[in-house]
């Protein structure tokens, strides 16, 4: 993520096979729904979002579900924020999302900006993931959830991305304003204090000495 100003972000798109990761990404970038893509391919997209005040350069990594664990871990460490997608008509994709969520928690803790997306809500009559299960998936993360249909419209996709960018921005501000927490930082803080104390003492001594010189 770019420092000081929010000028760019790296977004990771994760989810089980065939949940609509590519459809989502392409819909967001081109505003079009394209039905068929080569399955299981990883692709890095770049996209410039031009707002009223500034530009944000996004890198969006659309992943393949069957990537090796090592690759997954590398991607998770790379990301500023993550979209975790599952399909409401596919139970295995829900289970995959649960596993991926545990991996995110383990590698980045609960402060990785994350949005959960339940996709294919145009096919709700064939639903196989219950509303309760969707709520459970959130456990461990304080993250927003969206129910969308990439096939049916642009609105849900835009809302998801806007929400994720808000979370990423918030995390950036937090990182820039919170004091360093490492033990080294505490020691150097204490060192600074004691150095200041001795400087004050030395300064007082010199003032007293120079007064007595005058007298
Ligand atoms: N009905 C419906 N179909 C969708 C929706 N989103 C995606 N699809 C379809 O689901 C299939 C898989 O979509 P992809 O975007 O390729 O899914 P993916 O997660 O990238 O798939 P892999 O890369 O193979 O893991 C395609 O045939 C899409 O057209 C949706 O909201 N509704």
UniProtKB/TrEMBL annotation:
It comes from Elysia chlorotica. It is an enzyme of class 3 (hydrolase). Its EC number is 3.6.5.2. It holds the Pfam family Ras. The keyword Hydrolase applies. PANTHER family: RAS-LIKE FAMILY MEMBER 11. This is small monomeric GTPase. InterPro entries: P-loop_NTPase, Ras-related_GTPase, Small_GTPase. Coiled coil: none annotated. Belongs to the small GTPase superfamily. Ras family. Transmembrane segments: none annotated.
